[in-house]
Design a protein that fits this description.
By secondary structure, the protein is an alpha+beta fold. The chain has two domains: about 1-20 and about 35-55, no CATH class; about 60-105 and about 130-295 and about 340-440, Outer membrane efflux proteins (OEP), CATH 1.20.1600.10. The protein has eleven helices and four strands. It has helices spanning about 35-50, 65-80, 80-100, 135-200, 205-240, 265, 270-295, 330-375, 380-395, 400-435, 435-440; strands at about 105-115, 120-125, 300-305, 310-320. A four-stranded antiparallel beta sheet has the order 1-2-3-4, with no helix packed on it. α4 runs antiparallel to α7 (about 270-295), α4 runs antiparallel to α10 (about 400-435) and α7 packs antiparallel against α8.
Length: about 450
């Protein structure tokens, strides 16, 4: 069954019926069969398949260059968003320790009475966790802790993807600015040469004016390219909190092995999917906790003392009567919350698979175009420019043809730079949507988190 398809359309997923998670949830009050057993079975089979199947193979055969990976790790370690996620993990750890402690402390009671006879008594009372609410609460807290650890992984992945995208945009803008500066220098040289030829009577006024206009256009394009670099630098600085220098990217991203994607299996390992799956488990524990809270917690007491000249000893037992409120509404709330999280889990998995497949298709298209350019279009720009200059100087082409062909050569180079930037962006998107960016950068695992 494709990941993301609602399993209630596939009853066979509930086989065998003895699977520990293939159980029907009891109905509470107004909720009529809140959970479909097939939904629970699908999650159970997905989880068991995840444990039994080997992990997907890496999409790329090489990691990031050491300077680039080291820089990413340092930025991620110091990022405020990651620090907030770490604090959330610490909070969940403390909540787990708190949930594992006894719910009730004993109570000490002292009583002194002065009347016809004087009496004094001391007693102790203890409320009993008869239904083991502590275990259900601790289970929910542990599941939330695992979810917070997955949230920390997701924060790292999101920041790495954002920084990678910003660096790609910066390096592309810088390359385009370098080419724009080269265009400007060529136009300045051409105008100077055109003026000399015009003074010698070899070039007409119209062609000289065309050279001046072309130079003005080159200056505007160089200014716009510099502004684009400034914007890209600001974007990187906003993420890193630094003004540079920033590491260089390789000329091309590593090759991708499309057959290693295994989107359906890889989606279950994504941090946001792991976090949501753990929260579904926490919601199930919360349902059980609310059910156990419907069972009264008795309080037993023992007291002893003296009343006049006589000794006094007594036992007490008190049990709350859930008559006016049986707390069934709280169970319904928890059940609805779990149902919502299960639906969200199905939606997130389905969207994750779709995003991976779309990213791979986009990458393959851009990579194919880049390979075609690399194989056929990488003739030397310097050689092209020298050839055009020689033809123009010899009078074999006129000024208009020279400027048009030179502009086309430079524009083609700009398009190639943009295509390389698109290739990097498509590759980076695939790394983020598939979760491979962690492996590519060599990010250290988070203690206690799922792989």
């Amino acid at each position: 069954m494709p990941i993301g398809t609602y399993p209630d359309r596939h009853p066979a997923l509930c086989q065998p019926p003895g699977h520990p998670l293939c159980r029907r949830t009891e109905r509470w009050g107004a909720i009529k069969g809140v959970f479909r057993s097939s939904t629970l079975c699908a999650l159970a089979l997905l989880a068991s398949g995840l444990q039994a199947s080997p992990a997907p193979q890496p999409l790329t055969g090489e990691g990031a260059p050491a300077p680039l990976a080291g820089y990413f790790r340092s930025v991620i370690d110091e990022a405020p968003a990651v620090a907030a996620a770490r604090a959330a993990v610490a909070e969940a750890e403390a909540a787990g320790r708190a949930a594992g402690r006894p719910l009730y402390n004993p109570e000490l009671e002292l009583e002194v009475e002065s009347a016809a006879e004087e009496s004094a008594a001391v007693g102790i009372q203890q409320t009993l966790d008869w239904s083991d609410r502590r275990a259900a609460g601790h289970e929910a807290a542990e599941a939330e802790l695992r979810a917070r650890r997955a949230d920390l992984r997701e924060a790292r992945v999101a920041l790495a993807g954002e920084l990678l995208d910003a660096l790609i945009a910066l390096r592309t803008a810088e390359a385009k600015a370098t080419l724009a500066d080269r265009r400007l220098r060529l136009m300045e040289q051409f105008q100077a040469l055109a003026e000399r030829r015009s003074r010698a009577g070899d070039l007409g006024a119209v062609e000289l004016e065309l050279a001046v206009l072309t130079l003005s256009q080159a200056r505007m394009e160089a200014a716009l390219a510099s502004a684009e670099v400034a914007v890209a630098r600001q974007a990187v600085s906003a993420i890193t909190g630094e003004g540079g220098p920033w590491p260089a990217l390789p000329d091309e991203p590593p090759e991708v092995r499309p057959e290693a994607l295994q989107a359906a299996q890889r989606a279950l390992l994504l941090p946001r999917v792991v976090a949501l799956r753990e929260r579904v488990g926490a919601a199930g524990a919360e349902v059980e906790l609310r059910r156990r809270e419907r069972r009264p917690a008795p309080t037993v007491g023992l007291r002893g003392g003296r009343e006049g000249d006589s000794g006094l000893i007594g036992l007490s037992l008190s049990v709350p009567l859930y008559v006016r409120n049986d707390y069934s509404a709280e169970v319904e709330v928890a059940a609805s919350a779990r149902l919502r999280l299960e639906a969200e889990l199905h939606d997130v998995v389905r969207r994750a698979v779709s995003a991976m497949e779309s990213s791979l298709a986009n990458y393959r298209l851009v990579a194919s175009a880049w390979k075609a350019w690399r194989d056929l279009g990488l003739a030397s720009l310097t050689a092209q420019i020298q050839l055009l200059q020689r033809l123009w100087s010899n009078g074999e082409i006129d000024t208009t043809d020279y400027l048009v062909q030179l502009g086309q050569s430079l524009d083609t180079r700009v398009s190639a730079l943009e295509l390389r930037g698109r290739l990097w962006q498509a590759w980076g998107e695939l790394m983020v949507t598939s979760g491979e960016v962690e492996r590519w950068l060599g990010l250290p695992p988070i203690e206690g988190s799922a792989p």
